[in-house]
Fold this sequence. Notes:
Blueprint: E1 14-15, H1 20-30, E2 34-38, E3 44-49, H2 50-57, H3 59-67, H4 77-83, E4 93-94, E5 99-100, H5 105-115, E6 119-124, E7 127-133, H6 134-143
Parallel strand pairs: 1-2, 5-6
Antiparallel strand pairs: 2-3, 3-4, 6-7
Amino acid sequence: MRVLEFVDTHAPYLNEQSTLQDAVDKLDLYKATVLPVLNEDGAVVGLITEQQVFDALYAEWQAAARQVPAPNLAPFRRYAHARKDSPITQWMTPNPPVLSEHAPIEEAVVQMLQYGLDTLPVQGEGKFIGTIRLVDCCQAMLETEP
């Protein structure tokens, strides 16, 4: 089985002009955990995870939490508000793993485990066509007889 058979072609993504606020909005709206970042040609140039967005917005709170267990989050919101319009390119992982639409499902699983991701972008002819999730890989492998 190939990645193309299980790719979500309606997957959300960001562009290089997107902000942290855009990432929060799409992660929430689509209940996604990972968003590919595309250049103007439609190629994947970065990846931002839900955890990276949180880390970018609440770095000061996390630093305080290392000193005092579970400090009140409210005083740290001003830092998040100050960063919400910063470009996603400042926080994304550049040159992320990207799967070919023709890759076998097993390659998707290996890359997800290697990079600690549950979703990977898929490209065809150098352009983003969607994403594949770990659960899609599970489904694919269960559909075939051992």
